[in-house]
Amino acid sequence: MVHRLSFRAMGTEMLVCIDNNSDHAPLELDDVPAWFEEWEQVLSRFRLNSELSELNRASNQLRSVSETLWQVFQSALHAEKFTGGLVTPTIAQAMIKVGYDRDFQLLAGKTLNHAMFEPAPISSLALVAWNESAHALCLPEGVQLDFGGVAKGWAAEQVVQRLKHAGSVLMNCGGDIAMSGPLLNGNPWEIGVFKPFERSGGYLKMLYFHHNCGVATSATDRRRWKQGNQLRHHIIDPRNGFPSVTEIVSATVVASTAIEAEAAAKSILMRGSVDGLDWLESNPDLAALLILEDGQILYSNRIHEYLQE
Known about the structure:
Layout: E1 2-9, E2 12-19, H1 32-43, H2 51-56, E3 63-64, H3 67-82, H4 92-97, H5 104-107, E4 111-112, E5 129-131, E6 136-138, H6 148-163, E7 168-173, E8 176-179, E9 189-194, E10 203-209, E11 213-219, E12 224-227, E13 230-233, E14 236-237, E15 242-243, E16 248-255, H7 258-271, H8 273-281, E17 287-292, E18 297-299, H9 304-307
Parallel strand pairs: 4-12
Antiparallel strand pairs: 1-2, 2-7, 3-6, 5-6, 7-8, 8-11, 9-10, 11-16, 12-13, 14-15, 16-17, 17-18
Helix pairs in contact: 3-7, 6-7, 7-8
């Protein structure tokens, strides 16, 4: 039997599922929201007293960090390298400049006062100093971190690792999904791809998974707001510090981990459909389904493995 628990954390909807062939859910299932509360107190840039907020305020100071923050920082380093610099947590200041300075529940549907600023490339993590033996970080003046989707992918992987002894596990962190393998009867986990702008209208496609992997969707249709007369979204292109200009509305990627799937989805969205698919096909472990503004759907070569059950 598949046991499910839904809750809200990290500014999005969460769903954890465990198939344990029992009428009774594992006791650990009820612990998952508390795990996320602990992680948010470390990783949230919207909590003034979080460990990350304190680090962001401590410019030019080498500070020891918790194991959680250190692990997520290392995941962010991997994501930045993997995507050629397109996915980086150093976008925090750019997020604030375009208006994403609060939890999205407080931002949705609002029009913010227009603030003029010049586009500028964003620094990479190469400017951040760290000491591996001490698990310490030093942010230079003007650099702040927002782990965003990397933190959600990391959290999804953590939940699967903690619960997989109890059965087959799937953790969905607002579209960043990790799973430990198929259902215990051998059937696949089924994951739906929403049609952009119509989240309540059912799924556009279904994907089927028989093995442990990660899936993530990056999209520009959900987290939108207006800044003056400019429509903004949360996918910041570090090449100029502005929300990405792209014909891709939604990119769903399958990878070996949720962290890589999340990073790849954002990278493809920022690259655009032509360069994005070229980059993806150069990574044989990836598969993707892209939805364009005109409604066209593009498929990578490997995604067909997951479309047919």
